[in-house]
Amino acid sequence: GLFVTDYFTRTPRKLSPFRSFASIELFHFHIPEDTVIAVWNLITFKEQGGTFGDQCPDRSITVYFRSGAPSVINPLHTHFPRDTAVPGSFALTLTWTLPNRTTGVFNVTSPLPGDWFLAAHLPKDEGKISVKGLYEECQYLFQPQLIVQRLVNIAVLYPGHVTEQSMAPHNRSCLYKVFVPSYTSRVLVEVLRCRGAEGCPLWLRVRAKAPPLHNSTTLDCREHTPCQLAQDLPFWQHWYYVLVEKHPGVPGTLSFQVTVQLTDCSRPSLARPPFLPSSASMNMPHSFGSAGGLALGDSPPPTSPNDTKHPVPIPVTSHAGERCWPVRPTLRNELDTFSVHFYIFFGPNVSVPPDRPAVFVINLLPVLDSGGVLNLELRLNVSSLCGENVTVFGCLNHEVPLTSGDNTSVTCETESLAGFLLSVNATASLSRLRIPYPQTGSWYLSLRSLCATEHGFEPCTNVTAEVYLRTYLSPCINDCGIYGQCKLLRTNNYLYAACECKAGWNGWGCTDNAEAFSYGFQLLSTLLLCLSNVMFVPPVAIAVRSHYLLEAAVYIFTMFFSTFYHACDQPGIVVFCIMEYDVLQFCDFLGSLMSVWVTVIAMARLQPIVKQASVLYLLGAMLLSMALQMDRHGLWNLLGPSLFALGIMAVAWTARTIRRRHCYPPTWKRWAFYLCPGALIAAAAVLLYAFVETEENYFYIHSIWHLLIAGSVGFLLPPRAKPSRRLGPLPRRKGCGYQLCVNEQEELGLVDPAVASINSICTS
User: Fold this and answer.
1) Where is the chain membrane-spanning (predicted)?
2) E-assigned strand segments in 122-172
């Protein structure tokens, strides 16, 4: 046949360690119809500082594949919320083959058409809190590429017509497809008039949505006469593919006929009428392709007079389950993104008669609805049972309703279908079902009432059960509870929602408390982070005593906003916010940096040099506000103003040292008991903050940071500068000269000015 190759790629993205589904990278692809093979090329490479990260450690990368909706993954093996159905997916782990690059290949033969989703992440790390910009981090980038090969001009089988086909010796198989409309209960494929070899050395394979595989429904025509393959309860509004494959080693040309019969479940004793040439009569969505059969691996054979199509009468026998019941639609009411309610006409109370099921359809829009959670709730009205032991069973199936002909059947599965079972009775009158990331399309809910007896379940008589039915689409399960936050995420043009848990809670709905923080632990961590700011009280007292009123005001500002910021920043339920979180965070960061700025400027003692030192205070406030607005967590945006203040202090101290020809401050006591201890305490605080702090030890390491920073301020703040006494003008000598007056107390930098007399030494 004629193959067409399509190529799709996505932009590389940085992978993150897995914490929740909100930390994964999601990629969305679309596979066209009639695809025979899809090849994903998974490219991963390392980067560090804009170059290849040859020195970065090898970290395994896990990739998940799923058709129709994103994968519901659980790499941490946490518990899902109750009544939650977990759809399956395929996972692949990539290993590194080169120091900075690796490539993985994932092949899917005859993939299902439509949306495919890839999810990738790194393994969970130890949760270290790193300072942005302190060092070049290793980045792991992931880029998936998709190559598909699809067949064109696949022959279409028309129900009720015969297609004649000749298979050349060098051909192995012929592929056809037939469209199955709604209300079809049975698909019957038959091979007729097999000629050219002894018996009928053919295999007949049938599969829905995609070309058949080796494990698809198969029939050996050599062993079965007539060669008929039936599919009960087929998927509605989908293509079914028929593959006629020749046995190996069969010489010569084989000729045969293929026909398809569809059974209309609304009229179980009748087959669907022969298909008319107009394609609109069956609402087929795409081109029908070629009229004749197409042999795989060969070009279409030339049309001969024998390759004609004509109706053939096929007897139809009655089968269990061929009868279908009316499907009641639901009204879709969109409230918000992933917030959709499905209302039942003349509902929400539903009457379930004893002699037939009640069937409802829920339509989920492609792409738009697959990123949320489908919720279903059944509540039985016990008063409607009239004392009978009635159980109402609900079967939720995708793309076809399951209405078994067996009146006592309570299963929602067949050989080709798998659904979800719900049940309510007088004892358990409430049943719920949650399906995260549901596949889009039509979901059918079939409700049946059965009475429990000694011999099992039997059909009820004259009892019509009443059930309250509620169906809706929500972003997350129970809005992630009180220990989680439901986040709306986006990858290109695809939206999906996921929970981000806190306070040690895990799971898809933040309901797994295996590692959860207790209330006492949350209260202790909050009190430590808040009360550790009381350490700023001694620096405030020292500043007031030394007449540093502006510095004292800054310390009070820092203590106040740091206390209430950490009270609002807690992950658990011990939270207290007096303002918006962003305002508290900005004020906390600004107060911390302003405390450093005003302390260093005060240590510089700029009054004799710069008469208006408040200019520097105002300049620092403006620079720090600008830096925090640019990047609140950037290293150099925060470290730059601090280094600038230290530079001003260093210049002032150097100028005094050169002028006096003596080290400043001049006393060893000031260095030994104040400056050196304060500098060591501040350095220890910075090292703890930058290299030791993690998510697990944050509450006590950050509390120690508060204590050390406040303590260092108490040591580094200079003593009070007592103004020098005004002396009368001294007689000037005749001639050229100058007078230099020095305040010894200010030069010595003594803590207590009473220990030294104020002497003005004037030299000419």
Assistant:
1) 516-536, 548-567, 573-597, 609-628, 634-655, 671-692, 698-717
2) 138-152, 155-156, 161-167
In a domain, 231, yes or no: yes
593 and 448 together in one domain: no
Rounded to an integer, what distance in angstroms lies between the CA atom of residue 365 and that of residue 443? 11
Q: What are the tens digits of pLDDT across the range 392-418?
A: 899 999 988 876 555 556 778 877 788
Q: 53 lies in which domain range? A: 2-152
Domain boundary among 152, 181, 201: 152
In-domain check, residue 673 = yes
Residues 362 and 462 in one domain: yes
Total-model pTM: 0.79
DSSP 104-124: EEEEEESPPSEEEEEEEEBPP
Count H helices, E strands: the chain?
A: 10, 37
Give dist(CA 676, CA 658) in Å, integer: 22
Are 545 and 467 within one domain? no
- Sign of the C-alpha dihedral computed for residues 747, 748, 749 and 754 taken in this order: negative
Q: Are residues 248 and 342 in the same domain?
A: no
132 and 143 in a single domain? The answer is yes
Cβ-count burial 290-305 (b if 16+ within 10 Å, e if not): bebbbbbeeeebeeee
pLDDT digit string (tens) for 22-32?
Answer: 899 999 999 99
Length of the chain as a residue count = 764
Residue 616 sits in a domain whose CATH number is 1.20.1070
Pick the last residue of a domain from 440, 475, 510: 475
Q: Contact at 8 Å (CB) between 84 and 434?
A: yes
Show the beta-strand stretches assigned E in 347-503.
Answer: 349-352, 358-364, 373-380, 390-398, 420-424, 430-436, 441-453, 456-459, 465-474, 484-491, 494-501
**Residue 317, domain member (yes or no):** no
| Averaged confidence pLDDT in the chain | 82
Rg (CA), the chain: 39
583 and 694 in one domain?
Answer: yes
What are the distances in angstroms from CA 256 to CA 68, 195, 240, 508, 723?
37, 6, 20, 54, 115
| The token pair that represents 217 in the structure block | 């429904």
Query: Residues 105, 106, 112, 118: is their CA dihedral positive or negative?
Result: negative
State the Cα–Cα distance between residues 760 and 726, nearest whole angstrom. 10
First CA to last CA distance, the chain? 109
pLDDT in tens, 624-669: 888 888 888 777 766 777 788 888 888 888 888 888 888 888 788 8
Number of domains in the chain: 4
The pair phi, psi for residue 54, each rounded to 5°, is -65, -25
Whether 163 and 295 have beta carbons less than 8 Å apart is answered as: no
Handedness of CA 479, 484, 485, 491 (dihedral sign): negative
> Are 576 and 639 part of one and the same domain?
yes
Burial class (CB in 10 A: 0-12, 13-18, 19+), 653: middle
Instruction: Say if residue 361 is in the same domain as residue 392.
Output: yes
Is residue 212 domain-resident? yes
Report which of 103, 180, 176 is spatially closest to residue 145, judged by C-alpha positions.
103
